[in-house]
Specification:
By secondary structure, this protein is an all-alpha fold. It has 9 helices and no strands. The radius of gyration is 18 Å and the shape is globular.
């Protein structure tokens, strides 16, 4: 690999490492995400205890939990830079692409950490599990990539606003709607034990969404970040 590419990757990883170290000091984002997920899972488990929801409902509930838990913490990736006054130093130290991909990797790490905790708790508390684990893992992998790609650019936009928390969820929901429809459909097939033809269309939509969202976020990020 050319030295320029190695240097670029090392800068991206340095931004991600900085955020990870900062998060372990404050634990704001991860605490908000995990606490929201745990409370929501507990409430839902009590709510559905009196009846047996269908697999379709279970698939929707799983992604509702992940979506709102993610909304409670992913915006912090840029908000904390603005509030602590380190945004200007970061702009001077690195170009926009380095910052975008560094923050994207950090959000991905948060989402996968959230998923690792939510999945077993969801199976235990709601007494259901996928009949097709491969489809379920496809949905989680591609869903988290799309979720991180979309929320990273939205978090950069929201960090400039006065009302940050509520605005982040309001802006994210319509943008993430196609992703949520696709991952819920794939997760439903995973719970029902469907075959590949059942997920072919939502899988194509999900892959296209991930690619388009990351490319658009990459192209727009430098303009948004430096305004």
């Amino acid at each position: 690999m050319p030295s320029g590419n190695v240097n670029w990757v090392s800068k991206v990883l340095a931004v991600t490492e900085k955020d990870i170290v900062s998060e372990f000091r404050t634990r704001y984002a991860i605490n908000a995400i995990l606490m929201f997920a745990l409370v929501t899972l507990t409430v839902i488990s009590f709510a559905v205890g009196a009846f047996s929801p269908t697999k379709e409902v279970m698939a929707a509930l799983f992604w509702i939990i992940l979506f709102f838990a993610a909304m409670s913490g992913l915006a912090q990736v840029f908000i904390k830079e603005e509030e602590s006054g380190t945004a200007l130093a970061l702009k001077l130290a690195s170009d926009g692409t380095v910052i975008f991909f560094g923050k994207l990797l950090f959000n991905l790490a948060l989402l996968f950490a959230l998923t690792v905790i939510v999945v077993p708790l969801f199976i235990i508390l709601l007494k259901t599990e996928p009949a097709n684990w491969l489809f379920f893992l496809y949905a989680i992998l591609l869903g988290n990539i799309g979720l991180a790609g979309a929320t990273t650019i939205i978090a950069a936009i929201v960090s400039k606003a006065t009302i940050k928390g509520a605005l982040f969820t309001v802006l994210s929901f319509p943008v993430l709607m196609p992703l949520l429809i696709a991952v819920i459909e794939i997760t439903k097939s995973a719970f029902l034990g469907g075959v590949f033809k059942d997920i072919a269309a939502p899988m194509q939509l999900l892959v296209a969404y991930d690619v388009v969202m990351i490319i658009l976020s990459y192209l727009l990020f430098d303009f948004v970040w430096r305004q």
